[in-house]
Amino acid sequence: MINEPSDSTRLRNSLSDSSASEFGDIPGPLSSALINNQRARESNAVSYPRRLPIAVETASGSYITDPDGRKYIDCLTGAGVLSLGHCHPYLVAAAKRQLDIFTHGLDFPSPTRERFRDAQLAMLPEDIRESMVVHFCGPTGSDGVEAAIKLSKLYTGGTDIISFQGAYHGGTNGSLSVTGLRAVKSRLTGLMPGVHFFPYSNCSDCPVGLSRDTCSVNCAEVLVHALRDPNSGLGRPAAVILELVQGEGGVNVADPVFVSRIREITRELDIPLIVDEVQTGCGRTGSWYAFEQYGIHPDIIVASKALSGIGSPVALLFLNKKLNVWEAGSHIGTFRGNEIAFAAGIAAIEVIRRENILENVRSVGQHLKDALQELAATYPIVADVRGMGLMLGLEIQDPYTKRRSKDLARLLQEQALREGLIVEVGGRDDAVVRLLPALNIDAEIADAISRKLSRSVAVVQRSVEATRS
């Protein structure tokens, strides 16, 4: 008896038969050799080349070239760390100069560290700038989240943390504990206790079962009521941690009323509000930090990813001075003195100011979003388009059942790669195709991205229809 091929196999076969793409089979032979060597010599935790099977020979601006000579537009940008694209010459020059001066300084003061710190503080809104101090963490966003949780517990004396469904805050013990995705935690024991997950204003899939037309942001009221109710079982939490746009959660943009209600209740009860700007920060959403668009003042801001603009790691907390209860050595890290990252980060801010990059993010981001919304209006497999600035996502669905489709999202990612476009997938059921292009792309590159996506969506749509005919 011959087993019938699965739906995903039939779709993939149909995709291969019908797609006249720019590159054909991927990976090419030279990329394939490097990928195979990696799989033989590195741990099973390697992830990106499994879904995006390419190797990298060179990279410049918005483009990556593989060893087989194929050129791709990069809408992953190192998971958002390369805010000005690959190898920006002004940032590279600043890093090279720093190599001859001083490269690693723990937390000893230096002229470069001081300029970087003050440049970062100057990017905060003027009305909170003087009330904040900077804490240099270990070099990752995860460590920034760990530091924020630890500091909040020291300040309040509390132990419990409030997080939100769909959240992603990192891969270390504490940051993973406040991450919503069960799959990454299912085999682990000993995660941080006392974490409570509440509904997030994910309006494309309302957590309290309302339609967009009838929503009154009841998701926020669930938390407000629980914090005020003496019978809710909650004590006074040490902190509430919040993303204003859930990146890994599927580019879910928080409703402004939801955010304001969360800020009101946390201020009322003196609960530190931690805003995780690891992915949304440094201009990604069209303002330097996303919280600026919500009219709130966080108690703690976690920043990392694009702080250097060049992929050299650094992470910071901005914390209200009233929370500055650290003692010397309370939260340290050997690599919190990355002077090369500091030098590049200074240069990145200079470019962003000089070239009006934040306005570019807003205008080109809207231009690209409009093009993606045309795809949603044309092709039934695109269920939703959402995002802010140049942090955008397309939720992919089975056009017949209207259910989110991981298989179709992965097929779209594969087809986009054949077209010369690198995109990521994530969100619930891994059904959201995500775009994080460089913040300095122009309308011409944005149009190239939308054309490649349009061709890819059309191919996947035809493949779905062919398997159902």
Largest sheet: 7 strands, mixed
Helicity, in percent? 25-40%
Strand order, biggest sheet? Answer: 4-12-11-10-7-5-6
- The global form is globular
Residue-averaged pLDDT: 93
Number of helices: 15
**CATH architecture of the largest domain, please?**
3-Layer(aba) Sandwich
Total number of beta strands = 17
CATH superfamily of the largest domain: Type I PLP-dependent aspartate aminotransferase-like (Major domain)
Structural class: alpha/beta
Provide the CATH topology of the largest domain: Aspartate Aminotransferase, domain 2
Poorly predicted tracts of residues: 1-5
Q: Tell me the domain tally.
A: 2
For the terminal residues, how far apart are their CA atoms? Answer: 24 Å
Strand content: 5-15%
